[in-house]
Amino acid sequence: QVQLVESGGGLVQAGGSLRLSCAVSGNIVGINSMAWYRQPPGKQRELVASIISGGVTNYADSMKGRFTISRDNTKSAVYLQMNSLEPEDTGVYYCNVVRSRYGSQTAYWGQGTQVTVSS
Prior knowledge:
The strands form two sheets. Strands 2, 4, 5, 6, 9, 10 and 11 form a seven-stranded mixed sheet that branches. Strands 1-3-8-7 form a four-stranded antiparallel sheet, with no helix packed on it. It is mostly beta strands. The chain has strands at 2-7, 10-13, 18-26, 31-39, 46-52, 57-59, 67-71, 77-82, 91-101, 104-109, 113-118.
């Protein structure tokens, strides 16, 4: 099993910044993808950014240039630096990792952290 605990959410004014952290523990062998998702109020969960083995990153179009995903080299933590925040960035942010073992993949999720951006 893998446990994920997010932190760093809160209330910020438009134009401000937040840094989210996700502590990853448990059996982390085989983790090959780490990501952040978010769920805006009344909407479906969507990908924010991901980082895979080798450090290759991917961002949703609306986050490019504003958000940066990074991880600890041991894959025991993943971070999301969010700059130039907009009210549309409001939502619950979830940490996600995918672990590959014995030919199958399992996704794990954190409990989420609330980000609220005021105008």
